Amino acid sequence: MDENAGIYARESPYLERFVQLGVASGRVLRVTFPRDADEDAEAEHAVLDRIIAYLEGVEDDFVDVQVALTLPTDQRRVLEAVRAVPYGEQVNVETLTRMTPDLDHTEEADLQLVRTALDENPAPILIPDHRVRDGPSAAPPDVEQKLRSLEEL
């Protein structure tokens, strides 16, 4: 991954928005979908190239992209489990809870923990919360729907 720190953004015709990355120390800190990119955002970054290709229909699981997950450990485990959901497949919150180490799908607190982790996902697309059909997504609703449509979910 590109080691340059900074903000990178490019407009996606498919999303009708920009895709913007915050990067530091070779890791993606954040993926957002603003209507307008930050003024100081640069357009060229290898991960951004891959995201734009994905939005144009090129299948990519992004598992090799390092994402800085600065969340509590239990939420981090949930988001790591989301990354294991393959392109074009969906799970529900209960299944994701089963997939996450040390969580019990019969415990409401654990189900809520999964929903919270999805809602606080710092890197939608790279951590594909749109593949959890009954959970929240950190992406705006219109972006989430387009991501599901793209993968025919």
Question: Could you explain the architecture of this structure?
Answer:
By secondary structure, this protein is an alpha+beta fold. It folds into 2 domains: 6-55; 73-150, Winged helix-like DNA-binding domain superfamily/Winged helix DNA-binding domain (Arc Repressor Mutant, subunit A, Orthogonal Bundle). It has 5 helices and 3 strands. The protein has helices spanning 46-55, 73-82, 93-99, 108-119, 141-150; strands at residues 6-12, 17-24, 27-32. It has a 3-stranded antiparallel sheet, covered by helices on one side. α3 (93-99) packs across α4. The radius of gyration is 15 Å and the shape is globular. It starts with 5 loop residues before the first strand and ends with a helix.
Strand and helix layout:
Elements: E1 6-12, E2 17-24, E3 27-32, H1 46-55, H2 73-82, H3 93-99, H4 108-119, H5 141-150
Antiparallel strand pairs: 1-2, 2-3
